[in-house]
Amino acid sequence: MPLNFDPQQCPVLAIDDHLPAVPRDRLVVPALRGRFERSPVWQPERVADRQPLPRSLVHASVLMPLILRGDDITVLLTQRSERLSDHPGQISFPGGRAEPQDASPIATALREAEEEVGLTHDFIQVLGTLPHYTTVTGYVVTPVVGLVQPGFSLQVDSSEVAEVFEVPLAYLMSPAHHRRHAVGEGDEAREFLSMPWMSQTADGLPKSYFIWGATAAMLRNFYRFLSA
Q: What's the pTM value of the predicted model, to 2 decimals?
């Protein structure tokens, strides 16, 4: 991507509102647990941004935190610090590269979530993992899906995370909110998804979040998994 690339300036090619939303009865705790226990036959829609940059691939994990909010479930997301070298300012899940002491991709995701936002494993019940996703920057990412009980408190590492926010799972699992964009031409052409979310600040002012790239792709795969 160009240094000053702004994905929000890419035209919307299509909105996937012809696809059905995941039914509400699949977005409750028993159904989510059952889906991972008895995984259906399905294929991820998106497995990579495009051909990674010419450097050694790095294994990483992210936690897809599903927060229990009464009868609803939200997804916790972060906005990355502008000071980071990879994907600065982008919306992402808590996560990062695997370290030698990590026993598994799940261990990486749990450790990184605690380091980045202070979300401790005591509140998390891991449901399972989704297929790897490879970013253009050379990370092979394992998404780890976990239910998060309320009552936790966050301690954000401001060197990595600029902000933490939540989006209703039902919103993200409705393709009416999935937009398709394209950037580049010829062999360099790349299509990507976005899932814009409008929220409010503590002062009640509108604030928009542009969820795109690898995060949107992993959420789209979660949609395919729950829809299968």
A: 0.93
